[in-house]
Amino acid sequence: MSQAEEFHNLDDETQGLARELAPGVTTRIFPGEHAMLSIVTIAPDAMGTLHDHPEEQWGVLLDGSAIRIQGGEEIAVKKGDFWRTPGGVPHTMKAGPEGCRVLDIFAPPREAYRKQGKGFG
């Protein structure tokens, strides 16, 4: 494989594996051998489904504003904020009035996200 195939762009909507997570919540997934990136777009005031998974997850708010709901707490986040979600902790996001975009990093990769589909897996 050419190394050029390992380069991607956050703003190129044609790249990655597309997945609709919930109404108004979509992602583009980039799976690797030991980690996985997911670029999540949440429409204004939309919210994901409260869920958990065994994989560790890190998130970075790239654009917009949101409320991170994690482990029973609600925390306002702004562009540049990042957080860690241990495996097994229930979590979701609610976008602010302008919507938001989040970069999620999973380790190890979530097997359910290795293919296009719907839902949080």
From TrEMBL:
Superkingdom in the source lineage: Bacteria
Boundaries of every Cupin type-2 domain copy: 39-106
InterPro entries hit by this protein: Bacilysin_H2HPP_isomerase, Cupin_2, RmlC-like_jellyroll, RmlC_Cupin_sf
Name of the protein described by the UniProt record: Cupin domain-containing protein
